[in-house]
Amino acid sequence: MKFDDLKRIGKIEYKGSKNKEKFCFKYYNPEEVIFGKKMKDHLKFALSYWHTLVAEGIDMFGDATMDKSFGQNDPLEKYKAKAEFCFKLMDILGIDYYCFHDVDIAPKGKDLKETFAFFDQMVDYLASLQKKYNKKLLWATANNFSAKKFMVGAATSPNADVYTIAAAKVKKTIDATIKLGGSGYVFWGGREGYETLLNTDMEKELDNLATFLKLARDYGRENGFKGDFLIEPKPMEPTKHQYDFDTATAIGFLRKHNLLADFKINIEANHATLAGHTFEHELRTAAIDNMLGSIDANEGDVLLGWDTDHFPKDVYGSTLAMYEILKAGGFKNGGINFDARTRRASNTVEDLVLAYIMGMDTYALGLRKAVALIEDGRLDEFVKERYDSYNHGIGKRISEKEVTLEELYEYALSIEDLEVESGRQEYLESIINQIMFS
Ligand code: XUL
Ligand code: CO
């Protein structure tokens, strides 16, 4: 991949849905105001550093298909070139935010000390690029799952020395988040789980994990981090049983350990489906507890059933997701991070740019359609009507928590004609199609 390719492509502009040019937005018009805000402020798109600047197309069966060294051999120069490319790419796409793992942005040193020294240099370099290009950090995270030492976990490792290394990496990454003005700090528990109970003290691991999150929270707050700490749930992969299974599980864990006030959830579409949920289920679950923080936008492949991190193309999905996000009041510290990569055979800079264009247009169109659904009002109206029995009589008393079980018993005996209203699912689904395709 070469810088020249980006220059050749140039700035990506909005040209409308009738346009057939390759390099333009058909639906994403950043400055357009809809539903009270500019599209770019509703969507707050972010680039994922790991997929975009690091992943080179390696899979279980094949070698790299992409070269992201940008012609550099010296490790630091290579990472500086990646950073430069990252900001130039964000610039032509009009993406305002980015997200990274500690290991994504800097080369590995001979030991932890040297690794941290490289990291510090690269954080300073990113700070200067942020200023130059007027870009922001959405969130950062520590990769505590790839290295061999994390093979049986990090904050849930049975080995206390490993726990300290994980903690040190989190400390450094929180420092970087603060320095770069990031509005989020993510914990994705890649190997915070287990393969078999035969060798696992689950209670101990969960207790250690809670302590770890508390230490990170306290350190962040003491050092001026005002953004959200975020848990990114995923049910499995790489571990068979991952502790942060889904949004409900993560919220329950945070509640038990009194961490709700400082944490929110970062919900990834492909993780939701792995947990056997729809993305919108996860979004709603977070929203009703005021825990919806940020999203990782991507999608899986129905025929593969694992975390394939495709760039999102399913407008039906993005519409239902944006519907939930708008109804939850939109993003505050969070945004839409494309935790997505081009397919292994889409290995050019052009492919990368086209993938982001598709992802951004998918969510822009989703936003437009979600607004149309809300403005149409039929879905809201139907749901409101459906629960109307709780607005008066015995239902009102249930809602207001004024009833006793005996009262309900007496009432139930007095019911003569009972008719439960139709759920009208197919009708409601047809409304979505009508809005989507008109
Ligand atoms: C892995 C995943 C991660 C997190 C950050 O499935 O989603 O990239 O988003 O560690
Ligand atoms: Co993710």
Number of helices: 17
- Strand sequence of the main sheet, in spatial order? 5-6-7-8-10-12-13-14
Task: Give average pLDDT, whole number.
Answer: 98
Number of E strands: 14
Total domain modules: 2
CATH class of the largest domain: Alpha Beta
Find the CATH superfamily of the largest domain.
Answer: Divalent-metal-dependent TIM barrel enzymes
Shape: globular
Cα radius of gyration in angstroms: 24 Å
Strand content: 5-15%
Poorly predicted tracts of residues: none
CATH architecture of the largest domain: Alpha-Beta Barrel
Helix fraction? 40-55%
Bound compounds, each kind once, are:
D-xylulose, cobalt (II) ion
Structural class: alpha/beta
CATH topology of the largest domain: TIM Barrel
Task: Provide the descriptors you would attach to this structure in a database record.
single chain, 438 residues, alpha/beta, 2 domains, eight-stranded parallel beta barrel, binds D-xylulose
Description:
This protein is of the alpha/beta class. The protein has two domains: 3-376, Divalent-metal-dependent TIM barrel enzymes (TIM Barrel), CATH 3.20.20.150; 379-436, no CATH class. The protein is built from 17 helices and 14 strands. It has an eight-stranded parallel barrel with strand order 5-6-7-8-10-12-13-14, surrounded by four helices. A two-stranded parallel ribbon has the order 1-2. Strands 3-4 form a two-stranded antiparallel ribbon. A hairpin with a 2-residue loop joins β3 (33-34) and β4 (37-38). The longest helix has 28 residues, at 349-376. The relative contact order is 0.10. The model has no long low-confidence stretch (mean pLDDT 98). Cobalt (II) ion (CO) binds at residues 232, 268, 296, 339. Cobalt (II) ion binds at residues 232, 268, 296, 339.
